[in-house]
Amino acid sequence: MDKNARIFVAGHRGLVGSALVRALHARGCNRLILRTREELDLRDEGAVSAFYAEARPDYVFDAAARAGGILAHRRYPADFLLDNLRIQNNLIRGAVAAGVRKYLFIGSAAAYPHDARQPLREDSLMTGPPESSHESYAIAKIAGIRLCQAFRRQAGWCSVVLMPTNLYGPRDGFGDEDGHVLPTLMRRFHDARIGGGSRVTVWGSGSPRREFLHVDDFADAALFLMDGYDGADIVNVGVGEDVSIAELAGLLREVVGFEGDINFDRSKPDGAPRRLLDVSRLHSLGWRHRRTLEEGLRETYRWFTTRPDA
C-alpha cells in the first residue's frame, strides 16, 4: 500500500480497529479516514453510500462488527445477525460501487464447523454447522466472506479475507460477563486483587482449549497481507498453539499478582471443546507472530492498569 493513499478503517475505536490505526500510523500512513458511530451509522445503507461518494477511500480495513461473549450471543442472536449483516453488506457493496482498490474483511474462527477436524483448516469452512453458542455471529461472518468472494468473481474486485483466532489487547472489552473470556478474566483477577478477594470464579470446567493472538500482532499480519496477498482463498491468522481455559486462568492469576483460589463454575457453558487454527498457509506466505502469550498478557495488563480511566 502507498502510505499516501486514503485508507478507511471501519470500527477504528474497537480492539482490532484501534490496533490497525496504530500499525498504519507507525508505517507513516497519515491520510486515514475515520468515523465514529455517531458520525456514521454503518447499518444505514444511504449514509454509507454517501460516505463513500464523499471520502473516496483507496483501501478499506473492515474492523466493524457487533461482537461479544457466549452469554451476549445467546441473549441477542437476532441482533447479532441483523446488525452484522447490515454493517458488512453496506460496507462491501459500497466499496465495490466506489471503486475501492483493495478491501480487507475480517471473518472469525467461530464461523468454522463445530465438529471440524482440529487444527481448523481454511477449507473446512461450511463443511458443517458452526458452534451453536455463536451461530448468529458465525452465519453473518460466513455471509460476508461469501459476498467478498462473489464480488471478486462477478466484478473482478480485490478483497482479502482473514480468519483471526481469539484476539486480545488494548481497548478490549474488560467490562462484564458479556465480554470475551480473556479480558473478562483479567478484570476479575484484577478486581479481586485490588479488593482483597480470596477467590475468582471462571465459567465452565476449564477444559476447553483456545488459541490467543495479541491484536497488535494481528494488525501487523493484516498489513503484511494487504501488501503482498491477492488470493481469493481465506487466510487463517493465529499462533498455531492453544491453551486450556484453566491454564489461561493460572497464567492470568500470575500476571495480575492475585494470590487467591480459582473456582470453576460448571453450571455455566463451556462453548466449543477446542478451537485452534491451522496457520500453515500464513506461515508459507512469510508471516509469524512476535509475542508469546505471557508477553502479550503482561503488555495488556500494563495498558489496563495505566489507561486514563483506570
How widely separated are the two ends?
36 Å
Please state the average pLDDT score.
95
Fraction in beta strands = 5-15%
**Number of beta-strand segments:** 13
* Main sheet summary: 6 strands, parallel
Unreliable stretches covering 5 or more consecutive residues:
none
Give me a quick take on this structure.
The protein has 310 residues and is an alpha/beta fold. Helix content is 43%, strand content 15%. The two termini are 36 Å apart.
What's the helix and strand layout?
Blueprint: E1 7-10, H1 15-27, E2 32-33, H2 45-55, E3 59-62, H3 70-75, H4 77-98, E4 102-106, H5 135-155, E5 159-164, E6 166-168, H6 181-195, E7 199-203, E8 209-210, E9 212-214, H7 215-228, E10 235-237, E11 243-244, H8 245-256, E12 261-265, E13 274-275, H9 280-285, H10 293-306
Parallel strand pairs: 1-2, 1-3, 3-4, 4-5, 5-10, 6-9, 7-12, 8-13
Antiparallel strand pairs: 8-11
